[in-house]
Design a protein that fits this description.
By secondary structure, this protein is α/β, with parallel strands linked by helices. Helix content is 48%, strand content 8%. It folds into three domains: 90 residues, no CATH class; 151 residues, Rossmann fold, CATH 3.40.50; 158 residues, Nitrogenase molybdenum iron protein domain (Rossmann fold, 3-Layer(aba) Sandwich), CATH 3.40.50.1980. It is built from 18 helices and nine strands. The strands form three sheets. It has a four-stranded parallel β-sheet, with helices on both faces.
Length: 417
Amino acid sequence: MIETTTNPGASSDVTSALTAPNSILRLVRASELRARSLMTGLEDVTAQRINLGFVAVTYSGICRLGTSRGRAAVASTLRDVVTARRFAAWAFVWIALETAAPAQQSFTDDAQRNVPLPGEITRVFAAGAPAEVLLYTLVPDMLVGRNHALSPAALELTPPEYRNPVAVTNLPERDDPRYDTELLALKPDVYVDYGTIDEDYVGALEAISARTHIPALILDGRLANIPAGYRRLGAALGVPERGERLAVEATRLLEKYRDALRSPPVRVYLACSQNSLTPCISGHSFGEAAAWLGAVNTAGTVGTAPRRPLTLEEIRAFDPDVIVAASRGAAATLRADPAWQQLPAVAAGRVYAPPDVPFGWGPRPPSVNRLAGLIWMAYVLPGHTFDDAFFADIEAFFETFYHLKPSREQLRSLVVE
C-alpha cells in the first residue's frame, strides 16, 4: 500500500513560500535532493529520472505562479511530494525489474535432459527438416535459416514475408566440426531437433552443443505428442499464446480422426520408396498416421516385417484394399506397370499419392505436416469424396499452421490427381 500521510504543518509554509520565486526553486531543489536520497544504492541515472518526474509534476503550476490558481496547484503538488516521491521510487524499481535482462530458464526436453536456455530467445536453428517445419509453424520470424529450398508450388502457398529465408547449405554433424560454420555465423540462441528420441540423435545433439556452446534440445515427434510439444516449446520460446493455439487445433484434428477407419477396417499398403517395394510399416512415421486412423497396415510391424525391400508377390499376398505411393511419380509408374496391375487395388484404380505442398503430406518430413496427411488419408483410404468438411479442415490447418488461408481452388489442385 502507498502511504498518503503528509505533514500537517506543511500547507501554510509551502503557501507562503510561493510568493518568492527563489523559494520556489529551493522547494523544488529540496524535493529533488530528498528524492535522490530515497534512491541510495541505485545508479545516478535512476535518481535523475525520478527528479525529472517531480519537476514535470509541478511544471504546469509553476508556469502559472502569477495567479492564485497557479499557486494553489503548486502548493497541492508540493504538499504531496513525499507521497509522489515514494510512489515514483517504487514505480521506477518495478520498471527496472520488468525491463532487466531475463534470467536464464531451464527446459527439460523429451530426452529428459535439463537444458539451460536464455531467458529471452529470439533466434532458433533447426537441426533438420522435421524441426524446420515445426519451427516454421510456431516461430517463423525466429527461424534464422532454412536447409530446404521451397519449390515454386510451395512458394505460392507461403506468405510473402517467408519466401526468401536465409539458405543453410550444410547442417552440423556429430563428428565433423567443419560443418559448424553456418550454425555459428547465424548466432542462434537455441538449436532444436524434433523426431525420434534415441541414443544416436541425442548423442549428436549433445556433441554439437558441446562444440558450439549453443544450448540444444530435442522433442518427441510422435503424433500424440504434437499438442504438448507446441505448448512446452511455445512457452520456452516466449510465445505461449501461439503454442497454445497450435496445440488446440492439433488436438481437435487428432481427436476428430482417431479410429475413423477402424470400422469397417481398411487394409492399406503404404509405400515408402519410389519403386514402391519398401513399405512404411506400423511404427514408421507414415505407418503411425494409418494406425491413428485405425487402418490395417498390411506390411506389418517392426517386429514382423522383413528388413529388406519386399517382392511384388509378397505385396500381392497382402491383398490391400488401397495403395498409397511415395509420390505422384511413383503412383503413375505403378499404375502403368502390367505386373502391378495384377493387384486388385491397382486394377480398381485405388492407388493414391499424398500432396507435397508446401511440405509433404506423407511420410517425409516426419513432422507436424503429417496432420494434413491424416485428414487426407481419412478420405482417400475408404474412397470417400472430398467434401466441404474435408476442405474446411484443410483450410483451417493451413491458416493455423502455415500462416496462410488458401483458396478452395488451390486446395482442389493439390488433392485431385
